[in-house]
Write a structure and sequence with these properties.
Helices cover about 10% and strands about 25% of the residues. The chain is of the alpha+beta class and about 140 residues long.
Length: about 140
């Protein structure tokens, strides 16, 4: 693969969700390992301990303790409850498989993995969105 360039842009999904007070209030609801987050209402002690910090009847990642990264509770394979930081890379795009920085296969990061986009129904508008995300104009 020598000579190939990979251009990758990670969106600020989690960073953009922070309030002025430093609490994450976005819509990411999956851990870094791909596990779905549990609803905060399953942990009423946290909801009561951190009022006004976005905890409620939803499974969105939060940082009520002002941790630098949003996190959530999830169910481990064993059935036990654990916590983990959230996957803030959802929707990232990259170009791969080319020796040029402005061409290649477009891939999107979803649910913990990269996957190629099918271009059979692309419009010029779709292409311009991806180009802007990649900083190509």
């Amino acid at each position: 693969m020598s000579g190939l360039i990979m251009l990758s842009v990670v969106p600020l999904t989690c960073s953009e969700g922070f309030t002025e007070l430093g609490y994450y209030n976005g819509t990411v609801s999956q851990t870094d390992s791909g596990a779905p987050c549990l609803k905060w209402t399953e942990f009423p002690d946290y909801v009561m301990q951190y009022p006004g910090r976005g905890l409620g009847d939803h499974s969105y990642c939060r940082n009520p303790d002002r941790e630098s990264n949003p996190w959530c509770f999830f169910r481990q394979n064993s059935g036990a409850i654990g916590w983990a930081y959230c996957d803030c890379h959802q929707g990232a795009v990259r170009l791969v498989g080319s020796s040029s920085s402005d061409s290649g296969r477009v891939e999107v990061y979803l649910n913990g993995q990269w996957g190629a986009l099918c271009n059979s129904h692309w419009t010029d508008r779709d292409a311009s969105v991806i180009c802007r995300q990649l900083g190509l104009g």
